[in-house]
Write a structure and sequence with these properties.
mainly beta, about 120 residues, globular
């Protein structure tokens, strides 16, 4: 994921609980936060450090990192990465799916051509 230095990038950290819709014009970093609802980002969404996400995520690239628990529908126009200790339950639409050894994924995958819009 790109560095968090652009004006439109956002960060939600441990201790944050959010219910509703998030629309972000840049990248979104979620570290340990508890999010329930819809996330739409024009850039990338990176969930890590024990984040809990339930709802829908739409972004260019989505990364589910360390100890993330996601019960969500994911639409990643470029790529979805499920890191080794992440757990994903839900359906996925993406051009590229990467699941690391030790990760957990339960759901269906709909592969799409990268030329299709988000």
């Amino acid at each position: 994921m790109a560095k968090m230095d652009k004006a439109n990038d956002s960060f939600l950290n441990k201790g944050v609980t959010f219910e509703g819709s998030i629309k972000n014009a840049g990248n979104l970093l979620i570290e340990g936060a508890n999010i329930k609802g819809t996330i739409e980002a024009d850039g990338n969404v990176n969930c890590t450090l024990g984040a809990i996400v339930s709802g829908n995520i739409t972004a260019v690239e989505v990364i589910l990192g360390e100890n993330v628990d996601a019960q969500t529908e994911i639409h990643a126009s470029k790529k979805l990465t499920v890191k080794s200790s992440a757990r994903l339950t839900g359906n996925v639409t993406t051009s590229c799916l990467v699941t690391e050894e030790g990760s957990s994924f339960q759901g269906m995958v709909n592969r799409r051509d990268q030329s299709e819009k988000k």
